[in-house]
Design goal:
This protein is an all-alpha fold. Helix content is 79%, strand content 0%. It is globular.
């Protein structure tokens, strides 16, 4: 029997660590990259308007623009250095988007919408259904992918980036499709800030009608605010109510999209009809959080002073902005250029055409519904 001492086991090297440990470390490093780029995004969002002396254009450029551009730059750098795929576990796009949308619900005061915006509800229902169906139809005529059609239809008919995010969760769209849709929203919203108030003046619209037109047509909240300020104080008030009403209808559209894709679009010929359980399985549960957040915020605002309520909701909105900034940074980091090449110019044609329809229809509805409307005091 040998009495020679046995060699001690070799110390584990980083390469011999468990795959789970390696994935965790790289995932944490990836999320750190997201946080750093997100902080830079927030810096640009707050400082660029100051650098340009409060320019309306600079103030209206929203965080998705900076976040996606910086994310794309980070994507290129990490790809060149060969570490992007290892860090990808930290790009938690889906979680960040869903959390941000739940927090968005807290900014929607259902009481204000119900008591002060009867015409806004009618306008929102007609606009959303008409523009959505037109966009869906035209996208089909031009052969767009069904998921991209859903994102573009939701974005142009409801409220831009937030609606596109919600629709992406409902139809399980690719991140590249979401980034493409968000880019189109921003590209069309920026010139609208100046064009619509100018046209409202040329047409001789009242401030209330102009506000209803702006709120029902421009697809991002920041751009609506900037355009409303240019059109007048009353226009800004009505524009905010109309936009909030459309935001509140995100949940309805998401439920409809989930059902349509589950029971119609993705159902193969001859297959059994999907059960309610299958519908619930693919239903984006964050919409329940969105509705609950809105209901809780509405109740909370009835229990505190206006100043305290505004301060609290402001904190929630700031937190929501952070989550969505990080989400769009992650989208930029995960983006694949090949998706844009595949889409081509057809989505641009669809979005531009739907925007024109939205402009005309929203103007007609604003004149019809808000001509004699007075702002509640």
């Amino acid at each position: 029997m040998s009495t020679e001492p046995q060699a001690a086991p070799a110390e584990p090297t980083p390469e011999s660590s468990s795959p789970a440990q390696n994935a965790l470390v790289w995932g944490l490093l990836g999320f750190l990259v997201v946080l750093v780029i997100g902080a830079l995004t927030r810096l640009l969002e707050t400082k660029v308007p100051e650098w340009f002396d409060g320019s309306d254009l600079a103030s209206a450029i929203e965080y998705p623009v900076y976040a996606i551009l910086l994310g794309l730059a980070g994507n290129a750098i990490l790809t060149i250095t060969g570490v992007r795929d290892r860090l990808a576990g930290g790009f938690r796009t889906e979680f960040l988007i869903k959390t941000g949308l739940v927090l968005l619900g807290a900014s929607i005061n259902l009481k204000v919408i119900v008591t002060a915006a009867g015409p806004a509800i009618i306008q929102g229902l007609i606009l959303i259904s008409s523009v959505f169906l037109f966009t869906w139809w035209l996208g089909g005529k031009l052969g767009l992918d069904d998921k991209l059609r859903a994102l573009l239809s939701a974005a142009v008919s409801i409220c831009g980036v937030s609606a596109a995010i919600a629709a992406a969760g409902a139809v399980q769209a690719r991140r590249e499709q979401l980034a493409y849709s968000a880019s189109l929203v921003i590209a069309f919203a920026l010139p609208s800030i100046f064009i619509l108030p100018a046209l409202a003046s040329v047409f001789g619209l009242s401030d209330v009608v102009a506000g209803a037109w702006i709120g029902g047509n421009i697809d991002t909240t920041a751009a609506v605010t900037a355009a409303g300020e240019l059109a007048g104080e009353d226009a800004l008030t009505i524009a905010a109510i109309v936009k909030s009403t459309q935001n509140a209808l995100i949940g309805v559209v998401v439920v409809a999209l989930t059902a349509w894709f589950a029971f119609k679009i993705e159902r193969t010929p001859g297959s059994a009809r999907p059960s309610l359980g299958a519908f619930w399985q693919r239903f984006p549960k964050f919409i329940i959080g969105f509705v609950l957040a809105s209901a809780i915020a509405t109740w909370y605002l009835t229990t505190v002073s206006s100043a305290d309520g505004k301060e609290t909701i402001g904190v929630v909105n700031d937190l929501r902005t952070w989550f969505l900034i990080l989400a769009f940074v992650s989208i930029g980091l995960e983006f694949k250029v090949t998706a844009l090449k595949e889409a081509g110019w057809r989505p641009v044609i669809v979005f531009a055409s739907a925007t024109l329809v939205n402009i005309v229809l929203a103007l007609g509805l604003a004149l019809l519904l808000f001509r004699n409307f007075t702002i509640p005091t």
